[in-house]
Design brief:
Layout: H1 2-8, E1 20-24, E2 44-55, E3 58-61, E4 72-74, E5 78-80, E6 96-98, E7 101-103, E8 109-115, E9 118-123
Antiparallel strand pairs: 1-2, 1-5, 2-3, 3-4, 6-7, 8-9
Length: 124
């Protein structure tokens, strides 16, 4: 029976000082009231650096002052940050500045729909 139980147990992740981790937004939901959709928001926010390891399941993060939560969080709220593979970064197109406004050049219109009386376009 022990071998079946141990299969479901996850191995403890080893975090080190200065590691970059992603912070779960479960603690930040009240700060994200202005977001339009809970479905479309990110599950994790920016990579933050670990300042100190308090215990095996608690870490202290270097957070900006705009995030108003306690600096010490449980490891279940953080995930190790893995940077993108070289050559995989998505670079947004540079905006065209016409009459002091940012505009983007549209290659193709893929779809069109009307939402609350306004036309919305899906562009490439």
């Amino acid at each position: 029976m022990k071998k079946f139980t141990n299969r479901k147990q996850s191995k403890e992740k080893e975090y080190q000082v200065e590691d970059l981790v992603l912070l779960s937004i479960k603690d930040l939901k009240w700060q994200m009231k202005e977001r339009w959709s809970k479905k479309l928001t990110e599950c994790f926010v920016e990579p933050y650096r670990i300042k100190e390891i308090v215990s095996s399941n608690v870490v202290e993060l270097e957070l900006p002052s705009s995030i108003r939560i306690h600096l010490v969080v449980n490891v279940s709220w953080v995930y190790l940050y893995k940077p993108q593979v070289k050559g995989q970064k998505k670079v947004p197109p540079k905006p065209l500045i016409i009459k002091e406004k940012e505009e983007f050049e549209v290659e193709k219109i893929l779809n069109k729909r009307v939402v609350w009386g306004k036309e919305k376009f899906l562009v490439w």
